[in-house]
């Protein structure tokens, strides 16, 4: 196993770090002040500072760093991208600044690998240019969606059209003013083999029958300007060329999409945890109670040490998963990807909880810490709950002991 980053990634890392330090972090406050904070998502606007920062990052070539395909993106492998994504994880707004934010990254990867030339021209090109955004509509309110074979919404072939019906929710990004399409997962052939029943369909949001019902709240927040939408597909008719890769390929695409996408979240968790630990330590040495810095009271040194050890363990496992993906592909990295998908969000939740504790009452009011806590908690459910990933690790482990 080789976790060494390439010379190019190290140089990009220095540039990304400098840009985050000099341009992104000082403008976070402006970004939040420019948010519309409106209960109706139709009133949401993109903070102008985001477009400014995107233009600057793009001009510097710090753009689409997630894409291993060099004709479309930076051409870095997962191991190299891990370094950059960790840096981006230090700020909630940084991934979008570098056009590296979910769900666009996963959708772009799908279109690069499975999209038709026409889909690439019309949808991938503006996505990679950062002029539009997108969503991924898989989860449904009516069924337990951690089992993807449960999806009931339909993508039925009628002549030369595909007709979509069903209700989805938790479509992240649906409320963004620039969101122009979603990738919809639906049932096409209920009689086919279990993993060939579903399809993915590219759905322009202005197609008649697409009805956005509401934005859900995540721990009480609408997460504007992206939002998480609940959406009805009511007899949505599209030309058959809107299937991605053809009918019945939904599962195959989902596997490919979720492997790298899952570890991108984990890489960012490490950066977010580093930032929380830095703030925790600065506070612990600076603030005094009972005549001593907080760091020297009770078990606080142990707490800090535990956080450092947990972050470093998670980083190593993230790099191992990235290496496995690069070396063996998605199906050769199933244990590592599922393992880190459990470990990283739990680690972040533990670290940020400790940071909130050290900050006392102020911690509960601190937007950054509280938002990080919400993200960590939600990530233990999004992209597959902890239990599903533990189930995968256990299944692969036990398989070693079953007679072939
Ligand atoms: C912030 C956020 C953003 C999201 N963004 C998107 C998005 O962009 N697109 C999208 O399609 N979806 C998105 N989701 C949805 C997410 O992927 C689903 O919520 C998740 O897959 C779980 O499905 P479910 O909610 O139906 O829970 P269920 O399937 O009903 O599961 C509920 C609980 O049952 C337990 N459980 C399930 N399976 C097992 C098992 N095998 N063993 C033991 N216990 C088990 C777990 O505790 C689990 O949390 C998002 C969710 C959140 C919170």
Description:
This protein starts with 6 loop residues before the first helix and ends in a 5-residue tail after the last helix. The chain contains 13 helices and nine strands. The strands form three sheets. The protein has a four-stranded antiparallel beta sheet, with no helix packed on it. Strands 1-4-5 form a three-stranded mixed beta sheet, covered by helices on one side. The relative contact order is 0.10. The chain is globular and about 80 Å long. It is an alpha+beta fold. The chain folds into three domains: 95 residues, Orthogonal Bundle (Butyryl-Coa Dehydrogenase, subunit A, domain 1); 114 residues, Butyryl-CoA Dehydrogenase, subunit A, domain 2; 149 residues, Butyryl-CoA Dehydrogenase, subunit A, domain 3 (Up-down Bundle), CATH 1.20.140.10. The protein is 50% helix and 15% strand. The site of flavin-adenine dinucleotide (FAD) has 22 residues, from β1, β3 and α13.
CATH homologous superfamily annotation of the largest domain:
Butyryl-CoA Dehydrogenase, subunit A, domain 3
The mean pLDDT is: 96
State the CATH class of the largest domain: Mainly Alpha
**Count of discrete alpha- or pi-helical segments spanning 4 or more residues:** 13
Count of strand segments: 9
- Output the structural class: alpha+beta
Unreliable runs, pLDDT <50, ≥5 residues?
A: none
From the alpha carbons, calculate the radius of gyration and give it in angstroms: 21 Å
Task: Give the percentage of residues in beta strands.
Answer: 15-25%
Share in helix:
40-55%
